[in-house]
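Late entry, written up from scratch paper. The run itself happened at the end of the previous shift, but nothing got recorded in the book at the time, so transcribing now.
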Amino acid sequence: MAVKVKFWGVRGSIACPTPDHMIYGGNTSCIEVSDGTNRLILDAGTGLRALGQELMRTGGTSGILLLTHTHWDHICGFPFFTPFYMPGRKFRVMAGHLADKGGIHSVLASQMATPTFPIPLSALKAEMEYIDFHSGDTLDELFPGLVVRTCPLNHPDGATGYRLDWDGKSVCYVTDVEHKPGELDQTVIDLIKGADLVIYDCTYTDDEFPNHVGWGHSTWQQGIRLCQAAGARQMAIFHHNPDHTDKVMAEIEAEAKKVWAGTIVAREEMALIL
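Output as recorded:
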């Protein structure tokens, strides 16, 4: 069975749908992974709004939302996902970094509380379930044929990396992670070993990285080093720096492909079939 990966938001830190960001996209993190019947959603950035519009057109009524963490750029699309407001829909929201910090329900409720948002979380009409786990847990009862492995990532306030093994295909989502120069994170290598697709935090280049130590992000060069060490088949450059215009992204894409042919650059509405 084929597994489809579709990118609805690929930008990091802040949405920037401006004329300089039209080719690669300006919406923040949101990815849909589906086997044709069941749907996983990775992160709830501004790209989630367009996915919601698509589900309203196609009749999609359910899904599981896995959050890497709850910094603004990864949850600001949550209140604008139309299916959440529709009776008869069913969604599960899960996070691995808040089990000991009040839980995911509390964070999303505070995001939608007055005076920062006019509609409370309690107004959602879909059947909603909020689940906290610990990064490092294995989630093996989400959908038939799917096993989700998780690991903690080096990011301010914590974040979770995901590996989806689904019907013989493997997709890894490793974003908002900072590496140590000259070192390969063995936790990440273990997660992505032999994966068909690794979606990796490539906010910076190696030249830019020294000025952003402590910001919680990585580089496309480090992503390639990790993927090659882990024997992964393909890497998608993701979480694009808002300062990286289409011109800069095209230059990064060309250079990255020279370094490793298995590299692609994620674009909004790009769909990959595994």
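The chain has a mean pLDDT of 97.
(Scratch paper discarded after transcription.)
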